[in-house]
Amino acid sequence: MENWQKYISINPEIRSGKPCVSGTRITVSDVLSYLAAGMSMEEIIADFPALDKEKIIETLSFAAYRDSITKITFAL
C-alpha cells in the first residue's frame, strides 16, 4: 500500500516533527508500539477513536517505506 501519504503527516510543530496520523497527535511510533505490545487493531481503535483500521495499516505501510529507504553509515 502506498496510500500512506494520505494518512501520515510530518509537521515540526506537532510532536517535534515525528510522523503522525494526519489530524491527530498520534505518532507512527505510538501505533507500532501498541501493536508490538500485543494490542489488536480493535483495542487501539477503542482507545483512540480518531484511528480506524485503514489508518493503522497505513502506519505499517509508512514504517515499511521508511525502513526501505534508510541507509546505515558507518564511521571508520
What does the model show?
The protein is mainly α and 76 residues long. It has helices spanning 4-7, 28-36, 41-47, 53-69, and strands spanning 8-9, 20-21. The protein has a two-stranded antiparallel ribbon. The longest helix has 17 residues, at 53-69. The chain is globular. It starts with a helix and ends in a 7-residue tail after the last helix. Pfam families: DUF433.
Give structural attributes.
single chain; mainly alpha; 49% helix; two-stranded antiparallel sheet; 76 residues
Radius of gyration: 13 Å
Number of strands: 2
Structural class: mainly alpha
Distance between the termini: 37 Å
How much of the polypeptide forms β-strand, as a percent range?
5-15%
Mean pLDDT: 89
Order of H and E elements: HEEHHH
Share of helix among residues?
40-55%
What's the tally of helices?
4
Identify the overall geometry. Answer: globular
Strand order of the largest sheet: 1-2
List low-pLDDT spans: none
Largest sheet: 2 strands, antiparallel
